[in-house]
Amino acid sequence: MKLFYLVIIFIFFQNCSFDNKTGIWKNENQTLNQDNDIFKEFDTLLTSSETFNRIVPIQKNFRFKLDKPKKNFKWNDIFFEKTNNLSNIKYNNLNELLFKSKKISKHKISNFILFDNNYLLVNDIKGNLISFSFNEKKIINKFNFYKKKYKKIDKILNFIVDEGIVYVADNIGYLYALDYKKNSLLWAKNYKIPFRSNIKILEERLVVADQNNTLHFVDKRSGENFNSIPTEETLVKNNFINNLSANDNLILFLNTYGSLYAINRKTMKVIWFLNLNQSLDLNPSNLFLGNQIINYKNKIAVSSNFYTYILDATTGSIIYKFKFSTLIKPVILNDYLFAISKNNLLISLNLKNGKIIYSYDINEEISNFLNTKKKEIQIKDILIANNKIFIFLNNSYFLKFNISGKLENVNKLPTKINTQPILINGSLLYLDNKNQISLVD
User: Fold this and answer.
1) Of 204, 215, 361, 363, which one has the fewest beta carbons inside 10 Å?
2) What is the C-alpha separation between 224 and 145, in angstroms, rounded?
3) pLDDT over 70 for what percent of the chain?
4) Measured between alpha carbons, how far is 140 from 146 in angstroms, rounded to an integer?
5) Is 225:216 a contact under the CB 8 Å cutoff?
6) How many C-beta neighbours within 10 Å does residue 162 have?
7) Please, what are the domains in the chain?
8) Which of 90, 80, 105, 143 is nearest to 437 (CA)?
């Protein structure tokens, strides 16, 4: 299928970073003149020639309207659900270690874990798929698909689980399905081109993309290809991984070239596409860096090298374009977006009107809370639970903010976190730096 590529050329924006020596945000309690200054900050967020780097306090009379947190009992998709968005999840938040397993692998574990029917599913760089039963408190199965000729290759496995079946796409070019309880391989296909995306399941089809930015629709019962959609290739392979998200009508595909495609789920036809790469040099070797797509109702949130966009899912038109890039994928709850920018600002936006609700410097908030010198932190992940914002750091500390952006607590997990944390039945679940499972209440 011949595609006519729509190229939008953007102007480079200079990146502003925090300067610890100048102390320009030290006086965090300095308030702005209510409405006029709030709108001034909003104008800066949208129209300034610099990356957004300002503190905006929340208005005193503003109140978030959120649904009650709900207990979660499964994590079948590495990004939680088909939209890649998170929910407001119930968390016991006692920070007590309930269970710690023995080492489940001597090899490096993938950053993502799954939880299905009381089984934890993980994989390592040797290609082992490990099923751990919480009922029996032990590994019940360890499956390795790969033959000796692939022994020296580190395997990168993208996986998803559905109805007791784990579907895997790897960096060699294999796509296969495993009944993890029976340890039985159901089917395997060699597509000969390494896969490079997360996987989505849409009814009876798997959707996955390869490293050449071709999107594949595959029969989940047999592995046979229904359809393929080629998109722009990049000559240089960057660190960005192709990302897929879905809603009831569309599959959304962001490729390594920086193009976002919306494809009709039933017809498998492209509805619209948009290039989000802001470089003046839009050629196949140009590198794009972004984050995973999330969608909520009829809105799409996606971050590129320099901007965060809110798009209309039906038409692909840009509703809002903000001058910051997110460090990790944001969260949308009831039309409120919560994001962490690359310069460590905790930002909340109202997606109904595009206005900034608040913006706080996380490093400065920690410094003020602990009464210590301001330093840079390294953020691992964000979860929203109990109407609170939990920010996990690479050093195994976590920050608890209230939903209005006020830091309430700085604490350390009982074990060192190594994988992305997930919330199951009110408890936090992750693997530590020794590949031991930690269940924290």
Assistant:
1) 204
2) 19
3) 86
4) 19
5) yes
6) 15
7) 34-440 (2.130.10.10)
8) 105
